[in-house]
């Protein structure tokens, strides 16, 4: 009934969807899997009307449709249950359920709360949730909120004649096992009225629930598998099956790492984020944390940088036990952090190249608070040359540089200050191939200089190609450790197997 | 400003959006300076007393420029103080209270310690600046440590200051009649009174702080990206505290010039500084969300505000119209300088 044919979506520099065919039949549950960046989110957004496709057709029961916004999609029976909790937590349950659709309860400009509560109770009954609709949402558990999200989308049943298509984006990520079972039971029961599109990182859940599974990779649908024919292994191969080029990741430049331990974690936990993590980072080592989004790898990085205080365990940096966790003392110990969001945490747009480079080490370029601008500029000039940063001069606003060059400025900031523990969070995200190779070169060069690097890579190939050591994290715990000597690297499949 | 101009990369188009925004305040100032004599000229023609445009203008004269300078000098000090805060992405609304307290404390101390600059009474000047620094520091503490939004913390501190000034004075005026102190106004070099040069000296100090010190750099870093400043190991709380303290010092200097101008310290000394200084900063092109702008922008902004105030008096518009005109100017300045495509919601 709902069908996409040859749908294309392009963003500047990225071909996010390439001629995607996608179909949902009446009462069907369709799974959608793929790596980060494979195009799942873009596809979802096209389906629920947040993006308009650049090419191809969208049809419902054979009639072509084009949604300008999510509200129009909802009027055609397509609703989205968001992964990020989209409820407004300071409103009551019923206000959330009918947000934007209060009109039917309004008489002479006044909301009839009784009628709304009554209607809300009906919706809550559909998801088998027995709570007072006047409860403020912030008082509820995540599982309850997830069900309310579903109840909210199910109000489409009353508003729309005809069939519904409901998108579930990672609905299980915050749920416990029993809650997941409950949700799945509910979804199955609801198929008499609605079709579902189910997106999840948890492969077993997708296979368990879905009638058919679409596998995406690099913006394309690479396979469609029926429930009965689906096998976890085969699907995983399809998801990641790419060629790893040794040359590309500079494997021949990978040197064995030294003996000196830079960072040591001893049974460190941080609340719900990660548990019982132990590892050593040595001089010259690239240690890669591999896991899905939210598996805890970023939280571990943030602990090393002092932004996330652990609840138990011992962190030692260069032989000194870390007692107070803040960015300043980490920086003083030689830790440098290259964050994922360059615009937010990487460079200050509006400040120029040399100002950005000395931001973390101004005390080295000032006397009694007065800056030695000359020294700053000559430092910047030498690093511009050393890393081949493309900028007319050191006075140029960093916001105007390309992503790759901004990344080089961030790296120069830490390296020039003598940082030798470098944390890289998706350092190549959003960069083109040439700029990625530059980053790989820099990683090798930093190792040769005796720095230790903890990397959260953008793709698994990158992780395998670059690292000496790979630690697979799942649900906040280490699953497996791999040694990645050149020529003896673990395969993609080895990793994926432990990730999901 | 010449510095930043030299930095601009050679662009393909001469009139880029950024460049227009950058130079618009100066352009507005230039237009205003030519516009008021024109109105004046029209007026005189209508009255049958034609005069040569610009040459015989009452507005466009050294005398009037000195008058504008006198009006602008205290406002410039206060506006510079708040400029630093706005560059950090915060706001400080405590200026009226702080100025009043500093003025009153200065006058009391000055009279108590001798009543003339030649005695120990000169110490009243640094004392007033210390009081300003202390008030700014407390302001900053309330904002940073109690985690109260800066606009609320500073507004409340401003009320506290006004109340304190009233408590100290009991509503009375205190006259400061020492001729040496009053020479701020009475002594003129090249037609301009000393206070104008004092203000320019502090402008240069502020420029130095802004462009040549770690503190100034920190202001821009915090305003341009607080997360990032934090992730670069900056102590953001300390930067904010120092910013508010520094602003307090500049408010105190503004108070001293204000007392020097009229020779009276009272609770009402601080009146109207909030509107004038915030207007000046915004009209001068310093972005309210932080990271962009500087003290030269503020100089242009203060001059725009002062020229409008003065010009409207010269052409004979009533005072309430002047405030309305300035209010409209603020809205225009924000509308012109905001890239609304990048701002989805404003709280």
Topology (elements, then pairings):
The complex is a heterodimer of chains A (500) and B (347).
Chain A: E1 2-11, E2 14-24, E3 29-34, H1 40-47, E4 55-60, E5 63-64, H2 70-75, E6 78-81, H3 93-97, E7 106-107, E8 110-111, H4 113-126, H5 142-154, H6 156-159, E9 164-169, H7 177-190, E10 194-199, H8 203-209, E11 212-217, E12 220-226, H9 232-240, E13 261-270, E14 274-282, E15 286-290, H10 297-304, E16 312-317, E17 320-321, H11 327-332, E18 335-338, H12 342-346, H13 353-357, E19 366-367, E20 370-371, H14 373-386, H15 403-416, E21 421-425, H16 433-448, E22 452-456, H17 460-466, E23 469-474, E24 477-483, H18 492-499
Parallel strand pairs in A: 3-10, 3-11, 6-9, 9-10, 15-22, 15-23, 18-21, 21-22
Antiparallel strand pairs in A: 1-2, 1-4, 4-5, 7-8, 11-12, 13-14, 13-16, 16-17, 19-20, 23-24
Chain B: H1 2-7, H2 17-46, H3 62-87, H4 95-112, H5 124-145, H6 150-169, E1 174-175, H7 179-186, E2 188-189, E3 192-193, H8 194-212, H9 214-224, H10 226-231, H11 236-262, E4 264-265, H12 273-283, H13 295-314, H14 319-337
Antiparallel strand pairs in B: 1-4, 2-3
Descriptive overview:
The complex is a heterodimer of chains A (500) and B (347). Helices cover 33% and strands 26% of the residues of chain A. Chain A has 500 residues and is α/β, with parallel strands linked by helices. In chain A, helix 9 (232-240) crosses helix 18 and helix 15 (403-416) packs parallel to helix 16. Chain A is globular, with a radius of gyration of 25 Å. Chain A starts with a strand and ends with a helix. Chain B is globular, with a radius of gyration of 21 Å. The longest helix of chain B has 30 residues, at 17-46. Chain B contains 14 helices and 4 strands. The two termini of chain B are 32 Å apart. Chain B is 70% helix and 2% strand. Chain B is mostly helical and 347 residues long. Chain B has a single domain, classed as Orthogonal Bundle (ABC transporter involved in vitamin B12 uptake, BtuC), CATH 1.10.3470. Chain A binds chain B through residues 305, 307, 327-328, 330-332, 337, 339, 344-352, 355, 359-360, 362-363, 366, 369-371, 373, 392, 395-397, 400, 413, and chain B through 7, 9, 212-215, 217-218, 220-221, 224-225, 227-235, 291-292.
């Amino acid at each position: 009934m709902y069908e996409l044919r040859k749908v294309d979506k392009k963003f500047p520099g990225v071909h996010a969807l390439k001629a995607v065919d996608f179909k949902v039949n009446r009462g069907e549950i369709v799974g959608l899997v793929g790596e980060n960046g494979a195009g799942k989110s873009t596809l979802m957004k096209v389906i629920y009307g947040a993006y308009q496709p650049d090419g191809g057709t969208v049809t419902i029961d054979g009639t072509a449709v084009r949604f300008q916004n999510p509200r129009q999609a909802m009027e055609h029976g397509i609703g989205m249950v968001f992964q990020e909790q989209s409820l407004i937590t300071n409103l009551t349950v019923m206000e959330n359920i009918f947000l934007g659709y209060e009109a039917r309860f309004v008489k002479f400009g006044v909301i009839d709360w009784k009628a709304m509560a009554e209607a809300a109770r009906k919706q809550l009954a559909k998801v088998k949730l027995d709570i007072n609709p006047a409860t403020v949402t912030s008082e509820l558990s995540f599982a309850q909120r997830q069900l309310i999200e579903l109840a909210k989308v199910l109000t489409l049943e009353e508003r729309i004649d005809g069939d519904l298509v409901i998108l579930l984006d990672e609905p299980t990520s915050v749920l416990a096992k029993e809650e997941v079972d409950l949700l799945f039971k509910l979804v199955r029961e609801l198929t008499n009225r609605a079709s579902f599109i189910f997106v999840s990182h948890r492969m077993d859940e997708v296979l368990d629930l879905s009638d058919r599974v679409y596998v995406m990779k690099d913006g394309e649908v690479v396979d469609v598998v029926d429930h009965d024919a689906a096998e976890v292994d085969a699907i995983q191969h399809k998801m990641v099956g790419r060629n790893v080029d040794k040359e590309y990741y500079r494997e021949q430049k990978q040197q064995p790492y030294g003996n000196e331990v830079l960072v040591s974690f001893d049974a460190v936990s941080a609340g719900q984020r990660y548990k019982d993590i132990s590892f050593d980072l040595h001089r010259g080592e690239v240690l890669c944390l591999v896991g899905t989004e939210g598996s805890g790898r970023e939280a571990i990085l943030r602990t090393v940088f002092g932004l996330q205080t652990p609840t138990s365990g011992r962190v030692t940096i260069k032989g000194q036990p870390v007692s107070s966790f803040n960015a300043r003392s980490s920086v003083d110990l030689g830790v440098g952090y290259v964050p994922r969001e360059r615009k937010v945490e990487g460079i200050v747009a509006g400040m120029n190249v040399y100002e950005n480079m000395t931001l973390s080490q101004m005390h080295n370029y000032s006397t009694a608070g007065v800056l030695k601008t000359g020294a700053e500029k000559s430092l910047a000039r030498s690093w511009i040359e050393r890393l081949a940063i493309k900028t007319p001069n050191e006075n140029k606003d960093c916001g105007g540089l390309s992503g790759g060059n901004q990344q080089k400025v961030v790296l120069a900031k830490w390296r020039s200050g003598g940082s030798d523990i470098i944390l890289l969070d998706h350092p190549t995200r959003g960069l083109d191939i040439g700029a990625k190779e530059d980053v790989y070169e820099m990683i090798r060069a930093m190792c040769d200089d005796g720095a230790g690097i903890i990397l959260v890579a953008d793709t698994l190939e990158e992780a395998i190609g670059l690292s000496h050591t790979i630690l697979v994290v799942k649900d906040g715990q280490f699953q497996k450790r791999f040694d990645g000597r050149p020529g003896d690297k673990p395969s993609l499949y080895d990793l994926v197997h432990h990730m999901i | 400003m010449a510095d930043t101009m030299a930095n601009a990369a050679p662009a393909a188009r001469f009139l880029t959006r950024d460049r227009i925004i950058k130079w618009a305040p100066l352009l507005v100032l230039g237009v205003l300076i030519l516009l008021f004599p024109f109105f004046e000229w029209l007026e005189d023609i209508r009255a049958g007393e034609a005069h040569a445009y610009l040459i015989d203008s009452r507005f466009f004269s050294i005398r009037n420029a000195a008058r504008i300078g006198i009006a602008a000098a205290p406002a410039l000090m206060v506006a510079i103080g708040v400029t630093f805060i706005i560059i950090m992405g915060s706001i400080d609304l405590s200026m009226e209270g702080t100025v009043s307290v500093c003025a009153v404390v200065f006058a009391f101390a000055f009279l108590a310690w001798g009543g003339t600059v030649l005695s120990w009474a000169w110490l009243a000047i640094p004392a007033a600046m210390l009081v300003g620094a202390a008030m700014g520091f407390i302001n900053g503490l309330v904002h940073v440590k109690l985690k109260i939004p800066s606009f609320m913390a500073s507004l409340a501190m401003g009320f506290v200051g006004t109340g304190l000034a009233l408590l100290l004075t009991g509503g009375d005026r205190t006259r400061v009649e020492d001729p040496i102190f009053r020479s701020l106004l009475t002594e003129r070099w090249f037609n301009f009174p000393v206070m104008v040069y004092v203000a320019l000296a502090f402008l240069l100090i502020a420029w130095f702080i802004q462009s040549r010190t770690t503190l100034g750099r920190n202001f821009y870093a915090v305003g341009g990206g607080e997360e990032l400043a934090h992730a670069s190991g900056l102590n953001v709380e300390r930067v904010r505290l120092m910013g508010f303290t520094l602003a307090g010092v500049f408010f105190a200097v503004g108070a001293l010039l204000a007392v020097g101008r009229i020779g009276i310290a009272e609770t009402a000394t601080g009146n109207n500084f909030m509107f004038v200084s915030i207007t000046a900063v915004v009209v001068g092109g310093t972005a309210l969300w932080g990271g962009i702008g500087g003290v030269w922008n503020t100089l242009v902004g203060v001059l725009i505000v002062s020229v409008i105030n003065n010009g409207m008096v010269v052409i004979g518009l009533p005072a309430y119209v002047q405030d309305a005109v300035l209010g409209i100017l603020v809205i225009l300045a924000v509308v012109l300088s905001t890239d609304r495509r990048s701002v989805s919601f404003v709280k």
